[in-house]
Design a protein that fits this description.
Layout: H1 6-42, E1 43-45, E2 52-54, E3 61-63, E4 70-72
Length: 74
Amino acid sequence: MIALSAETLVFIYVFVFLAAILLQWVSSEMSRRRRSSIQRKQRVQCMLCAMEYVDSSTKQLLRCPRCGSKNERA
């Protein structure tokens, strides 16, 4: 059996707890950036009226909901 002091056990417990928090934060940050990237790709700005809108379709030419002009996806 391995003999450990109380201070060592507390240190190991705190270290593992902080490592788990760090891993959770890193994974949530990566997920947030992935979602942000997808939303940025779906955002389109009208060349005529400068309105910015979101379109999740795969069409290359999109109609602006405000002025009706056709805009190309960037």
